[in-house]
Design brief:
The complex is a heterodimer of chains A (257) and B (248). With 257 residues, chain A is an alpha/beta fold. In chain A, 41% of the residues lie in helices and 24% in strands. Chain A has two domains: 144 residues, P-loop containing nucleotide triphosphate hydrolases (Rossmann fold); 64 residues, no CATH class. In chain A, helix 6 links the parallel strand 7 and strand 8. In chain A, helix 3 packs parallel to helix 5, helix 4 crosses helix 5 and helix 6 runs parallel beside helix 7. Chain B has nine helices and no strands. The chains are: A alpha/beta (257), B mainly alpha (248).
Chain lengths: 257, 248
């Protein structure tokens, strides 16, 4: 479990996060949602220690990662997998080499063992047989899957996904969401997903954190979204007239009208 | 303001280098990367170094032959002057100035591109010491390979001088070789290698630093690449002077 305690972050005079206290649970997808500029990416980068907070704590179980020295932080980071918005796959390496890279760096496995694990990870994301292709030779959706495979290769305790559905068609987005959700539950890992995608919110949102102007504006799960009377949530999720009508119809159905 | 910027950048540069000289996570990975960089920096620059050195030697010899033409100075001095100018100054300095343009801009763009595409963040999150993995192999490769390029440059320059003066008949083969073998000071070769190693370190570390901390988009990446060349060149000339003061 990851907890943030009164996290604040400023860039010069601009205070981006204004005291975030929240929890991200094991074995289920935790979603951070909110409009652009709400502070989602800053919060995610704080969670993984890429940014240092102005004040507050980020606790991995009982360890505040900002109390650690660089070496200890690297030890924690070896238990983290991350899927970047732009995938961050190394262009000069093949798909197989990309997935193998963390093992080359941190394990003493033999080449045969590493290749077996690469195949296993590709199978896990339904991408068998593309080991020798370069990232530029596969589609955006496939790159996301390869990114997930690389994030999972060292069997992380924590998985972070920054906009995993950006640039993908709705069907592929749903597949990626299901894949992340499945891996999270099967491996009982703490998964934090930063997303704009409403399909993700309604599909896999077991713990949703809605942010607005650096604050937590709402917290709940997907089953509470329809019924909530939180104005920020309504404005954000049911932004279009079509979605508002859809919501009204869904509520009528739910209440048997 | 200028002093503030200088002090900030100098401090950040020193801290980056301190982080870069850490114990490798996996020696074999660093070794592989060092060999790759040796190939990119060394083998990839041999042709341009040979080409430039040939012309430097030719121009030096022709100019001195012209200046000494009507004097009482023996013509074999042309070989002697070409040799010493090449070893002391031309080979290390001009080669490294050219390499700052070719290798320095390339390193800044490579690392800066990795920063912008979040490759560096991805490695950081995996637990890799990115300063060490991305900079140390390049530094080791450059400090090992660039002095070799400078030695090649000195050799080719002297041949260039020969081609430009002996072939047209300005002086004979015997005179040129006599000049090359006269008043040889081994210390100058040592000075050449000291200069080459220091310049290699400067151009590589400065370029990596500017690439590593690049912010923004493609315009900023272009600026970092240009700055890598400009700052490296200025530092090479400054340290050329300092080394000349210290070793002569």
């Amino acid at each position: 479990m990851i907890r943030t305690i009164n996290i604040e972050k400023s860039f010069g005079d601009n205070q981006v996060l204004k005291g975030i206290t929240t929890e991200f649970y094991d074995g289920r997808p935790n979603l951070i949602i909110g409009a652009s500029g709400a502070g989602k990416t800053v919060l995610l980068k704080l969670l993984i220690g890429l940014f240092t907070p102005t004040s507050g704590q980020v606790m991995y179980d009982d360890i505040n990662i900002f109390d650690l020295n660089k070496k200890e932080l690297r030890q924690i980071r070896m238990t983290i997998g991350m899927l970047f918005q732009g995938n961050a796959l190394f262009d000069s390496m093949t798909v197989g080499e990309n997935i193998q890279f963390p093992m080359d760096m941190f394990t003493r496995r033999t080449l045969k063992e590493k290749r077996m694990r690469v195949d296993q990870c590709l199978e896990m994301v339904n991408m068998e047989g593309i080991n020798n292709r370069y990232p530029s030779e596969v589609s955006g959706g496939m790159q996301k899957r390869v990114g997930i495979a690389r994030a999972m290769v060292l069997e992380p305790k924590y998985l972070f996904c920054d906009e995993p559905n950006s640039g993908l068609d709705p069907q592929t987005s749903i597949l990626i969401d299901e894949l992340i959700c499945d891996l999270t539950i099967r491996n009982n890992i703490t998964t934090v997903i930063n997303t704009h995608d409403m399909n993700s919110v309604m599909g896999i949102g077991d713990n949703i954190l809605l942010m607005k102007n650096g604050h937590v504006a709402w917290r709940g799960d997907k089953s509470q979204v329809l019924e909530s009377d939180n104005e920020t949530l309504e404005d954000f999720i049911f932004a279009s007239p079509f979605l508002r009508r859809l919501r009204e119809d869904a509520l009528k159905l739910r209440h048997g009208e | 303001m200028l002093i503030d910027t200088f002090l900030f950048n100098f401090g950040q540069y020193v801290l980056l280098l301190k982080t870069a000289v850490a114990k490798p996570e996996r020696f074999s990975m660093y070794y592989k990367e060092t060999v790759r960089q040796m190939d990119a920096i060394g083998v990839g620059s041999v042709f341009i170094v040979i080409l430039i050195s040939m012309f430097i030697g030719m121009v030096t010899a022709v100019q001195f032959a012209d200046q000494l033409g009507d004097s009482f100075v023996p013509t074999y001095y042309i070989g002697y002057i070409v040799r010493d100018i090449t070893i002391i100054e031309m080979a290390p300095t001009i080669t490294c100035l050219v390499l700052a343009g070719k290798v320095g801009s390339n390193l800044a763009a490579e690392i800066g591109g990795m920063r912008q595409k979040e490759h560096i963040d991805a490695m950081e999150i995996m637990g890799v010491n990115t300063a060490a993995y991305l900079i140390m192999p390049k530094l080791v490769a450059a400090v090992f390979v660039i002095p070799l390029l400078v030695a090649i440059s000195a050799f080719v320059s002297i041949i260039g001088g020969y081609v430009a003066t002996v072939w047209p008949g300005t002086l004979s083969h015997t005179e040129y070789v006599l000049g090359l073998r006269s008043y040889f000071v081994p210390r100058y070769v040592f000075m050449m290698f000291v200069k080459a190693s220091v310049f290699a370190f400067l151009l590589t570390s400065v370029s990596c630093y500017l690439g590593y901390y690049v912010k923004g988009g493609s315009i900023e990446l272009g600026e970092a690449s240009t700055n890598a060349v400009v700052v490296s060149n200025v530092l090479i000339l400054l340290f050329d002077f300092i080394i000349a003061l210290l070793l002569t």
